[in-house]
Amino acid sequence: MDNRYLALAQPGIQGLAAYDPGHDIAELRRRFGEDRIVELGSNENAHGPSPLARQALERAFAGIHRYPDPLGGDLKRAIAASIGIPRERLLLGNGSHELLMLIGQTFAGPGLDVVASQYGFLVYALAAQCAGARYVAVPALPMSSSMPRGHDLDALRAAVGPQTRLVYLANPNNPTGTWFSTGALDRFLFGLPDHVLVVVDEAYIEYSTDPSLVSAVSLLERHANLIVTRTFSKAHGLAGLRVGYACAHPDLLQVLERPRESFNVNIPGLLACAAAIGDDAHIARVREDNRAEREWLADQLRARDLRSGPSQTNFLLVDFETPATPIESRMLAEGVVVRPMRGYGLPHCVRITVGDRGENLRMLDALDRAMEAVSLASTA
Ligand SMILES: Cc1ncc(COP(=O)(O)O)c(C=O)c1O
Q1: Residues of the chain with CATH 3.90.1150.10
Q2: Least CB-packed of 83, 156, 225, 357 within 10 Å?
Q3: What sequence ranges are listed for the domain Aminotransferase class I/classII large (predicted)?
Q4: What is the pLDDT of residues 197-237, one digit of tens each?
Q5: Ligand 1: does its nearest atom lie under 6 Å from the Cβ of 315?
């Protein structure tokens, strides 16, 4: 590669590696066929979206020659009604990924620290580096040598210093599946200095069935430095539309409005998400089906002597207690996609999305063959 262009980039970008998508999924779909590939690598929703969202999508194409509403007024009204906050407290994004980056770009910068947990979602480090800020990863609570337990809120609090501008927390977290209670978050937020903004990323919150974990949206009135991000990509089953939202103090959102691309949410996204968020019955069904299937899958793994961590999400982090690459690559050769965790510093683990029963059975079959082949190879 000719480094001429890299030398022209700002220092934060020079130190970055481009996003690793895992696999060339389009190529894998062609190779195995849409009906044979099993995609359990990206925490998508096997149930798909609400039928109301599908109907809205059909209507969306009639107006596709227009620009989308840059204010996203109708979608904000629908979200506000659903989660019970004023719409001035909402900002829309091209997926919550865009918002996580926008927050970094707006508030972090050279000479400032961004604090997050070890095994926190990778985008937080990316947001810090892009802004030229220092990324401080705080050790997670251990469970075993290779399986993390989750965010250590006391240690995260202790890592906050005069240079800290942002703290990113994921609740529940990807890739660990772990979570902390809303009460613990409330205590964490109290007494933080005014110059520290706390982002609570709730991409998986709709999957939670633990009564101690309710959305941090309920804490917004008490903490003016809190930003909650949520998404339509997971439980709402609309990952392909790229829509997320941030909830925060209206004056804070006015600052984020400045660098926001005016038409960052497209017409199909605005219409389908407004329809989806009103379908509480669909989300309740998704949550319950996911819980039951996740428990079944964890039992199936346990029966194979494989441990998975506790999870309030639509995925399990599975510990092989031995390097997982040979197993994961054998599964991939059969068209079963799961997510390797080397990039997170967890080479013994893979993250497996909870699919529907058919997908999970096919994944387990491939897993059995892969484990047998690996154990034969090691005894040969
Ligand atoms: C914890 C977490 N936050 C945010 C995102 C980004 O989601 P999206 O940009 O699709 O809203 C993801 C996606 O996997 C995630 O796992």
Answers
A1: 21-43+281-375
A2: 357
A3: 37-367
A4: 999 999 999 999 999 999 999 999 999 999 999 999 999 99
A5: no
Q: Which residues sit opposite 229 in a β-bridge?
A: 201, 246
CA-42 nearest atom, ligand 1: 14
pLDDT for res 376: 83
98 alpha carbon – ligand 1 mean position (Å): 9
Taking the C-alpha atoms of residue 364 and residue 356, their distance in angstroms, rounded to an integer, is: 12
- For the 51-278 domain, the top CATH level (class) is alpha beta
Of all atoms in ligand 1, which is nearest to the CA of residue 97? 9
Q: Pocket of ligand 1, candidates 39, 97, 169: which has the most ligand atoms within 8 Å of its Cβ, to mutate?
A: 97
Tens digits of residue pLDDT in 185-207: 999 999 899 999 999 999 999 99
In the chain, which residues fall in CATH 3.40.640.10?
Answer: 51-278
Q: What is the DSSP letter of 143?
A: S
For residue 41, give the nearest of 232, 239, 228, 209 by alpha carbon: 239
Q: d(Cα 196, Cα 136) in Å, to the nearest integer?
A: 14
pLDDT in tens, 124-176: 999 999 999 999 999 998 766 556 679 999 999 999 999 999 999 999 999 99
Q: Is the peptide bond before 340 cis (omega within 30 degrees of 0)?
A: no
For the record, the structure tokens of 298 come out as: 């964890």
